Amino acid sequence: MNLVEVTNLSKSYGVMKAVDDFNLTAIKGEILALVGPDGAGKTSIFRAICGLITLDSGEIKVSGFNVATEFDRIKPHLGYMPQSFSLYPDLSVEENLYFYAGLFGLNRAQFQEKKKRLYEFSGLGQFYDRRAGALSGGMKQKLALSCALIHDPQVLMLDEPTTGVDPLSRRQFWDILKDLRRGGSGIVVSTPYMDEVALSDRAIFIFGGRKLAEGTPAELAGIFRGKAYRVAVDPTFNCMEQLCRIDGLQARRFGSTVHIYTKENDALENYYPALAEIGIKPEIITPIQPELEDTFIQLMGK
Amino acid sequence: MWSTIKALIIKELRQSLRDPMMIRLIFVMPIIQLFVLGYAINTDVKDIYTVVYDFDRSEMSREYVRSLSAGNYFNIRPVEFPVLNIDHGFRENDYTAALIIPNDFSNDMNRKKQPVVGLMVDGSNANSAAIALGYAGLITGQFNQRATGLSSPLILRQKKLYNPEAESVYFMIPGLITIMLTMITILLTSMAIVREREIGTLEQLMVTPIKKHELLLGKTIPFAIIGFMEMTVGLIIGLLWFKIPFVGSPILFYILAFIFQITALGIGIFISTISKTQQQAMFYGWFFTIFGIMTSGLFTPIENMPILIQRLTYLNPLRYFIKIIRAIMMKGATLQNLYPETAALIIFGLVIFSFAWMRFSKRVE
Fold it and tell me: Residues A177, A50: one domain?
């Protein structure tokens, strides 16, 4: 069964189109990653699935129920972890859990049992009486995840759970997600980090509210067309501007260097004169294996 | 339903009673308020510093001055300035009243001609000036009677009931308790709801199976409890420290206080729907409370207000509750005595609370 089904979702804020005719399907036992930069529309999609905003058009079903009309029936199946930390900073770890347990109607025995399991995977047990506001970034995210899991939801919606979290904690967090997936949950997670695509089962590239591509990590890696090169040049504003003016080439700042992409059946040699004009000699250009980020950028340019 | 509400109540109480700032706001501040205001707002006028210019210097004039100083009202002080510079002492606040006895005072008295004495009072404090003039008039009348042996055909004997000493503390403390109850209920309710929105937990709550009415009850019951705790603290201080009387039924008092609280809770919820931040909620809370207090008849009698404002005070729930709390504590009023006020409070509670509820439901969606 499809746990989440989003069909033709559109949502605008004034003249700004946040989500444009978006489709998504999440299934049991799978981690689906929504990947895109800030402002790509990820959070709007999440909030729409969690019934927090009204849709301009389209339909969303969670566990077979319509979000717009049957949201109360969805709630017991849905776990939502918003982008910003939204637990009670002045309550302790255990009190936060206890509160959410109460909201979902767990009794004391159920809570004790659930708590034990959540502490086991999160390692939060040793901090049970620490105030949530005093936890580290990674621990906060684990607590938020624990709270979202208190009622064993079928669908777990995690909006950028690893943003601003240190690499080690990110890794741990993903390990937890993989365990949960084995338990049969369907997980939808959004992230701005391209490297997390490889950890997911399926990913959707999203930009400007539209879906750029969808597939398994391997499929997405194979989308890139043409060739990619690294140019060892300082990516100053001036340089980037001149590069972008060259017709047929795509250029993107990449850390302290620049990546350029040629189209399919095109050769870099055709651009040597144009590149030489702006001071880029062939010696500083090296071919590279395109990464997912290169793929994303190429798709963005289309 | 109850497990959800219980979870919310426990959470709210934990949050409120843990935060040291909240503890200060809930318990310490009102106690200070009670002690400072209980003593500071003293409308009793005693020891009016008075200078006497006695140009008569007769036995009769000295007798008159003695009778003025007999009570605790006028504190007669030696003259420091020549009569032409009498202003100076007023401006320096050396005295607030000056009595001038002309030199033909005793002569006129003896010849049964009406003598005239002058009393100047510093009117910059209109309240105490009026009271000083009242005292002086009374004392002069009594002096007249004794000196001339004539009694006026009508003698007014005044007796103050319920608060015979006219102690302003008796009158202030019930009012201060009302302020505490109102302020804490309005502020805590509105701030607690806005805080959820501020830190984003309200959104998280909307994804849990909690119903709107459960959320609302869970957000109001804890502050109703805290408000009652605070009112009780105020009451205990009032009874034990200020020794104010409590003649009426405490049960009736608490029931009516609860009805009044529904209004305060409603205002708190309403404020939460028009505030984006806790600061905003606090300012609105203060605004409502101050406005309510000023037109409640607590500090200034409603009868002294302009007619238009007097009519407006009928829209102020505090007005009714202050009347109720004073009547129960000092006069032992029963429910039968307080029907109109109770009815008014019930109407206010229903209207304001349901209006707030509607706005809240809309806002949450």
Answer: yes
Name A177's Cβ contacts closer than 8 Å, sequence gap at least 6.
Answer: A31, A158, A187, A189, A199
> What residue segments make up the domains of chain B, in order of their start?
2-41+167-364, 48-148
- Residues from chain A contacting residue B6 (CB–CB below 8 Å): 102
Class of domain B48-148: alpha beta
Count of residues in chain A: 302
Q: What is the DSSP string of B335-348?
A: GGGGHHHHHHHHHH
Strands B97-101, A65-66: pairing kind: unpaired
Contact B81, B128 (CB under 8 A): no
Flag if A91 and B199 touch (Cβ within 8 Å): no
The shortest C-alpha distance from B207 to chain A (Å) reads: 6
DSSP B246-270: --S-HHHHHHHHHHHHHHHHHHHHH
Chain-chain contact of B207 with A52 (C-beta, under 8 angstroms)? yes
Q: Which residue of B has its CA nearest to A105?
A: B3
| Angstroms from A188 CA to nearest CA on chain B | 16
What are the chain B neighbours of A80 within 8 Å (beta carbons)?
204, 207
pLDDT tens for B267-319 read 999 999 999 999 999 999 999 998 898 888 887 778 888 888 888 889 999 99
Q: Determine the distance in angstroms separating the CA of A70 from the nearest CA of chain B, rounded to an integer.
A: 12
Choose the final residue of a domain: A221, A246, A281: A221
Confidence of residue A300 (pLDDT cuts 50, 70, 90): confident
- CA B2 to the chain's CA centroid: 39
Helix residue spans in chain A (DSSP H): 42-49, 71-74, 93-103, 108-122, 137-149, 167-182, 217-221, 237-244, 272-277, 292-300
pLDDT of residue A58: 92
CA-nearest residue of chain B to A106?
B3
Phi-psi sector, A163: left (phi>0), alpha (psi -120 to 50), beta: beta
Q: Which amino acid is at B165?
A: E
Note the maximum CA span of chain A.
75
Contact between chains at A88 and B199 (C-beta distance less than 8 A): yes
